[in-house]
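Supplementary Methods S3. Input chains for the assembly prediction are listed below.
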Amino acid sequence: MSVPAPACVLVVGTGLVGTSAALALRRAGVRVHLADVDPAAVALAADLGAGSLAPPDDPDVVLLAVPPSAVPDAAAAALDAYPGAAVSDVASVKGAVARAVAARTPAARRFVGGHPLAGRERGGAASARADLFEGRPWVLCPEPGTDPTALAVVTALVTACGAQPVVSMDPDRHDLAVALVSHTPQVLASLLAARLVDAPPDLLALSGQGLRDTTRIAASDPGLWSDILATNADALLPVLDALAGDLDRVRAALASSDGSAQASLAAAVAAGNAGHARIPGKHGSLPAPYTVVPVVLDDSPGQLGRLFDAVGRAGVNVEDVRMEHAPGRPMGLVELAVRPGSADTLVAALSGDGFRVHPPEQRPSGG
Amino acid sequence: MSVPAPACVLVVGTGLVGTSAALALRRAGVRVHLADVDPAAVALAADLGAGSLAPPDDPDVVLLAVPPSAVPDAAAAALDAYPGAAVSDVASVKGAVARAVAARTPAARRFVGGHPLAGRERGGAASARADLFEGRPWVLCPEPGTDPTALAVVTALVTACGAQPVVSMDPDRHDLAVALVSHTPQVLASLLAARLVDAPPDLLALSGQGLRDTTRIAASDPGLWSDILATNADALLPVLDALAGDLDRVRAALASSDGSAQASLAAAVAAGNAGHARIPGKHGSLPAPYTVVPVVLDDSPGQLGRLFDAVGRAGVNVEDVRMEHAPGRPMGLVELAVRPGSADTLVAALSGDGFRVHPPEQRPSGG
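Predicted structure tokens for the full assembly:
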């Protein structure tokens, strides 16, 4: 059953995911209304063009973008307030949440649990982007008693956001999956980064990109993530138990002085190679590739202005910009991401203006 | 003591690091000769323009880009073969290597242990790039008896590669540092990725960017890394022991059914936030807190130029810039990170110029 995008959606919770969904829906022509317990958060989301602050009369869908433990109450309230609406959520734990909603109200047949597999380590409306869900899986977990009309309109919402609906995944199987591919990486990144709290600065000075990558998600919100981890404890604990056993074996190999130690360590790294190779890659899961044009600048106030002035005169639209300050060096590296077709124009223009432009590099976006 | 770049360098080992150093030295006008036990590897490096296959007559420096356990023999051979040359290495473990070289030959005074903090998860000459070391720290560990001329010419080589020499770090302290910031992340990334080996495809289908980032370095070479980990076991083991304890506490919190579990999990994630914020960002120092000034722009080419022109006129130094700009979002959000004392000036100037400035936000840098 395929239906058009909903005409009107109420997004409750204007953090990263809620605001991104609102922006994506606006882009698809949907009327979007916004609500959040934090007036400053919802005001920023509205100013970013995510939707209206006025309460809706009759939304087709209420999308709850609130932490997992807040979903059951919010769902019961939305099902009660809008008897014609389907209600969905974005919580990354589905089994326990679905059971709690079902226990609360018979209107739960209009509730369709959902989880977009998309995010960033930085929360808040400020980090929101309309293409956050582009090509990403968005799991929906209807129950046997779910209203088919509700499922259809929520599926249409997911499609309107640019995501790939993964319908009919068993909620508990979903929770096993995210325990492995999302919650375990979060725990390891947090524990690794926490080891740095008391490290002397001269040791930290040797940090490189490997540490930055492995700990990027350690910047995630403690309130939200403790909620997620605790809610998914049943699925997460066996994975962490197995990891603890693996870690014990590596420690034993390091502690042993016999010749088998290195073979055992090599086997552990090789198993990591094999697991890494199984992570689904570029099969349509990432947004369009960009070409990154690196430009080296002196680290002084006028430089960025001069650069962006030159970019503007070149008539090239910059899709993303990242500035890296190399440790110990008074130079900044600015990486300008542009559509592949625009890279040559930009390189020529900037080089002509005397900028130190390095060879462009193809890179998938989404990171 | 500052000397010009060496005129002639022999690079032994044409993997990623050796070939990248050779390319960087060639770019700096240095005559480079290449050697490797693997004829195919050295032929590829030569074909890539990294240097000559002919043996050098009288190199100023022999740079050993071989695994840690191979350095002592290679160093003794090079010190013997080229009595006028300084010899250095790039192994990521320094204490044990330096002791092994010193025990082998009195010529060890011409040996200067080194370690460039740069790399990629893909090895081999094919992945080499001349700018691999650009702005990166390159640690040198001279001993009290090290020949000052040897130290000077190796330092000049490091500078010629574009790296920042970090001279006079104690070898054992270096090994503590890399155990924490490099070898521990490698072990965790490998173990995490290894958990995916037997995972069903429908679970892996939910993988996202967080998993990709945390496991990127799991693609590293098992032979090289088992060598590194085993050689640095003394420094690495205590870090892994502490991590195992931290992991036990998270597992205990997840297994407990009382209300304290979530507080304990939140504390673990918050400790990760704190550690992550300590990873050095700009200029190798610990990141000072910044104030982030969010500005909403129309999504058109001239806007960034106009903004940075206004920033330049305000005389404010922008420490970092991040742009959230995706096709489809009606507005772009530019976040300007400045010193807290400059935020008010910037907000006033930009607001006066008609920009839509949102409330500034304190944020630690480094991410």
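Chain A touches chain B through 148 residues (CB under 8 Å). Chain A has three domains: 8-169, 174-277, 290-363.
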